[in-house]
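Now for our target.
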Amino acid sequence: MPGTVRRLDPSRPVSNGICSFWNGLDDALMAEQIQHGFGSGDLQNADFSGASDLLWERYTEAFANGLDVVGYNYLEGKYEQEHRLFPERVILGSENFPKEVGLHWPMIEKTPWIIGDFTWTAWDYIGEAGIGKATFYAPGDPDIGNPWATPSPFPWRTANDADIDVTGVLRPQGVYRRIVWGSLETGLFSYDPAVTGKVETLSKWGFPGVWAHWNWAGREERPVNVAVFSAAEEVELLLNGVSQGRLKAGEAPVQGMPLTFLFPTVYRPGTLEAVSYTCGREVSRAMLQTTGRPAALRLTAETDALRADGASLCYVHAELVDGDGHVVPDADVALEARVTGAAELLGFGSGNPVTAENYSKGRFTSYLGRALAVLRAGCEAGEAKLTVSAEGLGQVELTVPVAEAKVERS
């Protein structure tokens, strides 16, 4: 197989993501796997790093040796052993769990024979619905610790396990990954006060169920947990200017994750701030502010113009903002979009992972105060006008020029 790939494209190294053994093995190998304590064989992407035998190595060596870079799926625990066995092997983390990057990245950075790490996954997708959701149980519930006890029934749609949602908005785990990779920023997030006192259970692909806002109307004075992501030595939490305490690195992590701090406080509308300190000096800070109610719609295009080639796309973010221009993160408002002129509305929707709405109908409910419209140019130059409306907020328009497409001449 690697030889075939090299014949098709000799310009770059060949790799492959190799996971642990799972269903699909022949009878003899399945029996050997069970004999070594690997369950029934239905163990897709399981981590057998604790196994003392070399079953996995024996059966993958011939295939792996034909690769330029050997991709390991969810097998970080084998890296050191593999280097001892195959010192010339170049290893890549080809698929790994999102919340574990803080545990493994320090080793990856200092180890030259491990060249990097891919998470599952960067961009959210339709399918494997709810594989990354956070579930909260009352203390004593027998399902605590079982991430599959609560199914993800319709209308669950997306996996919800990504750094970026389907509309291109960075999610909390994307902020965490940047900090693990060296960013000095402070990430500030809150849990819903409604889950305080419950036990959070995550799948291997899950991430703590935190939110980048401080809008919890109706839950005033209720206890709430606040999560801070920071690479600093110490973090202080301030609520409306009053200190809620300081925590040192590792003192109270979120779900055992490095570079995280968990603060208990109460929900009071206003301003929540987290300040990161190293060597007694402020490194960075972050703020969440309770917003007003939606007062207007705001449209922002990612590109200034389209080309009249029948394929050029323009992504336009629709935001519900309060009177001060802040996005209202708890605004779930029915929106309608339409396009006239030299383009068509290719899609319109939000990043909501749990919805039965149709991306092609031009009607969608905002999620966390946002939605996204995708415009596709036609084959004639002119102007395209996007109009987005919401009941009680009127409508807003944005015009995108569609320039004549240049003809490539050979």
Summary: The helical segments are 2-8, 27-35, 55-64, 79-85, 101-110, 172-180. The chain has a mean pLDDT of 92. The CA atoms of residues 274 and 286 lie 5 Å apart.
